[in-house]
Structures are given as C-alpha cells and as structure tokens.
Amino acid sequence: MKQIPFVLIFVLYIANLFAEQLQSVEKKVYKAVRNNPHPPAIDGRLDDPIWQQAPVGNKFVQYEPKQNEMPSEETLFQIAYDENYLYVAFRALDSQPDRIVRRMTRRDQFSESNMDDIGSFDRVGIILDSYLDHLSAFEFSVTPAGVRGDVAWSENGARKDDSWDPVWYVKTNVDNQGWTAEMKIPLSQLRFGKKEEHVWGLEVFRYLHRKQETSLWQFIPRDAPGAVHMFGELRGISGIAPLRHIELMPYSVSSAQRFKRETGNPFATGKDSQLSGGLDGKIGLSSNMTMDFTINPDFGQVEADPSEVNLTAFETFFQEKRPFFVEGKGIFSFPLMIGDGDLANNMLFYSRRIGRAPHREPDLADEEHMSLPQRTSILGALKVSGKTSNGLSIGLLDAVTDKENAEIESSGSRRNEVVEPKTNYFVGRLQKSYRGGSSTLGGMFTATHRDINAPYLNSLTHSAYTGGIDLYHQWHNRTYFLDIRTAFSHLRGHRDAILELQTASARYFQRPDAPHVSVDSSRTSLSGHGGFAGIGKGGNGHWQWVLGCFWYSPGLELNDIGFLGRADQISQFSWAGYRVYKPVWIFRRINLNFNQWAGWSFGKENLYEGMNVNGNTQFNNYWWLSLGIGREGHILSVSELRGGPAILSPDFLNTWWQIESDTRKLLQFSLRGFRAAASNGITHYDNLRSGFSLRPSNALMISCEPFFRYTKDNLQYIDTIEIHDGPRYIFGRIDQKTVGAVLRLNYSLTPNLSLQYYGQPFVSAGKYTQLKKITQPRARRYQDRYHVFTSQEITYDAGSETYLIDENQDNSPDYSFDKPDFNFRQFRSNLVLRWEYHPGSTLFVVWSQGRTGDTSSGRFSFRNDMSELFQVYPENIFLIKLNHWFSL
C-alpha cells in the first residue's frame, strides 16, 4: 500500500507534463474616469452625469457551471474616482426581473465568499488588487436588497477573510430591466502605493442565484492555480494620494447578570452588574501600513463555543470569533500542515490563547468559597499590518493580559490568590513575494513572557519563543508548487514547568516503552523543531496532487501562543484529485479524491497508516451527494494510557456520506452520516447530523441542525492508579449517546438592523461496563491486551460511588476509583439585536442564557435528560453595547 501513492503521483506528474495544454488568457483593461465636480448621488439609480461619461465594462463570461460560455443574463459596470472615493455602478440586466432574489440578511452572511459558491442571493461585486501584488485583493459586493459583503483576499485567493468590515456606501434599485447598484468606496479603506499613475488588478463578478451561475468580467479558468494573478487591469487612476486616516471607535457596555443564589456563599448573591468602556482604533501609519489597536476590549456579543464532552487526552480546538483577532488574521497565519482535519489546526499562532481561561484553580478547604474569573482580561492589544512597495508583507501583534486573582472567603475573611500572571504576547510575521507573486519567502517569530512571582505559578513557563520559515514556489505557469515550512520552539521556566511539559499529553516522556525520550526533572528549558514539506500540482488540468511529509520533534511545544496536539511524530502523505469542471450527463460538477498516509515516532516505531477514497458531485437538479470509504490500520496509540506504554488498537473501516438539497429553494435540508467500525467487532463510532433551513419571507430565516452521536468503545480510559508493584491502567467499555441541536433564527428588517438567535441544547450520557485493567498492551491477540475484573475482584460502594478492586481476593481492597458514569447537560443561547445606526457605528442589545448540569447515572433518556436540562437554574446575562465610529 505504501508504494502505490508514489507510483501514482509519478505517473500523474509525467502525464501532465506532456499531455496538458496550458490555457493562455488575455487580460482585459478597464480605464476609469475622473469624476466631475459633482459626485454621484448614491441612490442606485445611475442617472448622474458621470455615468454618461464613464466607459461601460461588459462581455462577461461564465465561470460556473459552463465555463467560458456566454452568461444567461448580461452585466454592465462603470468606474469613476476622485481624490477621496472610488465610484462603481452596476447594471444587472434580467429578462425575468420578477425572479430576482431579494432576501435580507446581515452583512457578509450570504456565505463564505469564493468563486465556486457565491451564496444564496443574487449578487454583484468588484474585487481590487490595489497593491498589484497578484496575491491579495479587496472585495466589495451587494445583493439586490442592499446587503453588503466585503472580503479581504490573500494567498492568491486561497484565503478569504469576511471579518474585514470597511466603511463604505451602497444603494440598489430593482426595475423592469433587472437591478442596479451604486457604490462609493473611500480610498482610505484601500491599500495602495504612492504613484502618479496607478494600475490595479480588477475583477468584476455576478452571481445569478436561480441558476447558480457565476459570471466574470475577466475570464479565469476553473482549474486555474489561484485567482488574483489572473485579474484584469484597472487603469486611468492618477493624481490620488494615500490617506493617512485615523479611525476611532469608543464604546460603552452596561451588563446585568442573574444566576442561582447560594446560601452562605458571599459570591453567589444571585445578581451582578457592571458598567465599562473601551476604545478600538485604526491609524494609517503610511500609505501601505495600518495600526489597529484595542483598549479593554469587550466581546460580549460573540456567539458561545459549541458544547462538548471531551474524553480524550487532548485539548479541543475552537475557532476564533472575536472581531479584533479575526479581522486581518490571514497575514498572521502560519499553519504547519495543508488541507483540513485536526492536523491543519497545528499552527504557530492561535489567538484563542490571548484572553484564555486562567491556568490555575486553587484547592478549597471545607466551608471555603471562591470567585474565579472565567477568562483573562485583555488590557490592550495592537497590530500593525501592511505591505511595502517592494512586496514585503509585515504583520506585528502585541497584547497584554492582566494578572487575575481568585478571591477566596473563609469564615468571614477574604484572601486573593493569583490564578494567572500578567502576560505579554508578541507575534511578528514577514513575507516577501517574488516573480509576480508566484514565489514567496517569509518567517514568523512569537514570544510569550509571564510575570511569575508566586511559587504556585511555577508550573507555567516564564518565557516561550517559537518561530519558523516558510517558502512557497510555483513554476510552469503556476501549475506546480513546492511548499516548505519549518518551526522551532524554546521554552524556559522553573523545573516544575518544564517537568509538566515533559509529562503532558503532547509528549509523555515518561512512557516506559519509549527509549528515545526520558524525563529529566532538573531541566529548566525545552526545545524542539518541526515542519512540513510538500510538492504538488495545484491547477491547469483535471488532475491535482500533493506528495508531502511533516515532522514534530518530541520537544516541540507551541501551546503558549500556538496550537499543537501531539509532538513526536513523522508522517508522509499523498493526495490525488480529479476534477470535472463542466456539466456532464446528469452532473454539474464532479470531484474525486484519493488520500494515503503513514506515521512514525522519532523512535522509528510505526504508529499509524491509512487510506481513503471519496468524492462529491452536484447534479443538474442542484442536489449534492458525497460518499467516502477508508481504512485506518496498525494504530499504535502512545497516548491512550496517559503516560503508560503504547497500546495496539484495532483497525478501523470508515464510511461517510452526505446528501444536500437544492440550496436555491426556500426550504432546504441536508443529511450526513459517518461510521467508524473497529475490526474487534465491538468498538464503533456513529455520527448522524441533519440540517433544515426555511425562509418564510425575505427577511426571516430559520434553521435547525439536530445531531446524534453513538459511541461504543471497548477500551475507554478511566484512571491510572499507582500502587506498590506498579501502575494500574483502568479502562471500561463505554456506551455513550449524545443528542443536541443548533438552532438559529435570523430576522433582518433592513441591511443594517437585524435580530439573531442562537441556541444549542446538548445532552450526553456515558455508561461504563466490563471494567478492566490493561495487561499486555501490545499483545497480538486483542483479548490478551486487557483483563476484565471478575465479580470476585470488583465491588461497588453505592454510598461513595466508588469501585473497590481486590486483585488477590484477600477481602482487602488493593485500590479504588470513582464511578465513571456521567450525564452531562448543557444549554447555551444568545439573542442579539444589532443596529448599525450610522456607517461603522453599532448598537448591540444582547441576552445570553446558559444552563449546565450533570449527574452520575449514565442512563440515557432523551425525554428525561432534556426535561432535567431545562430544570437547571439558568444564568442570564443582559448586555447593551454602544460604539461610535469617528474618522479623523
């Protein structure tokens, strides 16, 4: 199996070199005109004098589904400018104006912007490569209902950031010829160099929703290895100067909290209220560089993370949702792997570390009560980003979080204990483009410094440094690429901190069967390295492929400001994909993929291997179907025993599928399933998820995504018990059922006034049977790897909910462990009224509610669990946040 991908990739490489005809696409040019003394009134009617003078851009061609053919409807555009603004007019002709989709939603909420799926709305837009670096661009788009979309493009269109929210103006109008749009874009919101004559990259697009048809002014083939470098050109702009603008956005927040009152607990009075404020700002440092800053930021309007029950040894990765860290995140991106999946989360900078929950939770004595902060306060943060005239991208970020104390009350007296030290985080990113953006060379450096001034904080490193170099090179008309990324880490701290890192789940240096690593309790530093290297074909043909490897040395540690699941591994992988871009028979498009991988530890032990085949297609009736099957074999888990020896796990056969209905309809649904079945005939994981969305009107959308997960695992870790003759690794057979749903309601009265609801009920119950200990973790025969406790060896004490183990059956327990069964119930929701009462200025009114409870019964009953969930006393937060945008 390991030889197949290398032969396949080699054959594909040779075949593509000799068989493919690279497409040559002529670049279009549009020449903008300077506006007369009277700027156009932004009303969407296109009756201003300037639109009688500006040349008309037309002759769009289809991008999808029938590439390079005439579009179903004609689109026209015009561009003008003055010293402060860029003006854009669109005329979207439509032979069936009564079928124009005028759905209302919040800004940027139609879908993630990309060429293949513009969304569920009719839409027109302009994309500007004002740097002319052939890598980055700024997109401005609008729907017939006037809903704005703005996206910052990077990496030649491979990465798109819709959290970028510049201040600009647009109006639309629908008439008997179709619809029109008129934009006014402040030049202060763009980035461009200081030149007398400007040449910018230009693309203009239209999405016709009822036919899911995307048309472009500048034709870009579907198989193009990138998009921005193929844009047409915008010329004619001269005599403008970059504006060194200053934007300030002060805000105030008033909040009230209601929760359950506890008698005798001075911190649980049942209510709390706060009034606070802060400042966000943006300063143009030069023509191409901008500094963003925030002082005492508030993220009270941000949606909560999804609920989970994590029974693994590893941390869960959560997406960043806070506006300051999300906007412009592309320039600070440094992943250590390409593609998707858990490995793609390994990165040098993971912004969720800034403002995280405190590391420490003090132990309390009887009759003591504590007030513990839920998150670390961010005193302030700033980031500088931009690109010089010679193609050097610069990103700098610095943030300071405050020292956090837990307030503890005991017998009327109070004391404070530090649970998180004052910390400074720094991230620096440089990247230089060459050869018209087809090659880039860059690097990143991060530093974390903590003010450790108490003995009980010695488990935290006082300084952590990480960094890396990345090289991306394309050749043969950008068809082939070489992608190399390296990383290093160096941490310093007290012996306790370095000992904790050595024994953490990412490393487990204490493993008795891993002679290539060992624990050194006297160490005060830890260093490591890692990286990724891949070569592949990214476009210009139906076939694409990647052959690569990655490695993380045992000492690599990124989790002070980055994210790393597990170190000590070397892996090779290969991927090949075949794309059908034009409709064939009953299919609008077809994608087929083949994946293969294998991994080893730095001790040269084979840890895992696997392969899968999957594909997806869209039919001519606009429905989608996805199917996949794969095998994971020879799994040697070095983490399952939580620092004990590695254990062999059974092979798995994985299957998955997904069906999605026509997304053009007012009622849509999807259904997807996944099953992983182990070769032992016992262990299996099943996941079923569906989705429904309904639009009763243009302003209202209701969606529900119920899900069900069923896990039956014969070897689920419970505890490690240290006794005189060695550790006992306690496992059990878990029968776990999880049910939940994600509920959303979006009601948009206007493009600037909306009401959004998010709710997630979640219940999970786990029942353990066949409690056992691990005996021979690498035994060839699966049943020889463990011993199930007999009725003579195990007894249960219901009073203390404890299992007692008498291994030698002398009527005296040798050790004990707590009952592991659980019922976890949680409900998280928030209701947000958002009103952009002035361009860039917003009022938020928020109601958040949370309910969390648990018991140890382990019995799953949907009716009882949901009933008891909503009997849990809720925590309610009411918040009003007002900010105002000033441009100086």
Note the topology.
Blueprint: H1 4-19, E1 29-31, E2 33-34, H2 50-53, E3 61-64, E4 75-81, E5 85-93, E6 123-129, E7 137-142, E8 148-154, E9 159-161, E10 169-175, E11 178-186, E12 197-208, E13 213-216, E14 232-238, E15 246-258, E16 271-284, E17 289-295, H3 323-326, E18 368-371, E19 378-387, E20 392-401, E21 404-410, E22 413-420, E23 423-434, E24 439-450, E25 463-475, E26 480-492, H4 495-502, E27 525-537, E28 543-552, E29 569-580, E30 587-600, E31 606-619, E32 624-633, E33 635-637, E34 647-649, E35 652-660, E36 667-678, E37 684-694, E38 700-723, E39 726-750, E40 753-774, E41 786-788, E42 794-797, E43 802-805, E44 815-818, E45 822-838, E46 841-855, H5 862-869, E47 875-883, E48 886-887
Describe the structure.
The chain has 888 residues and is mainly β. The chain folds into three domains: 235 residues, Immunoglobulin-like, CATH 2.60.40.1190; 254 residues, no CATH class; 238 residues, no CATH class. Helices cover 5% and strands 51% of the residues. The strands form six sheets. It has a 24-stranded antiparallel barrel. Strands 1, 3, 6, 7, 8, 9, 12, 13 and 14 form a nine-stranded mixed beta sheet that branches. The longest helix has 16 residues. The termini are far apart. About 2% of the residues have low confidence.
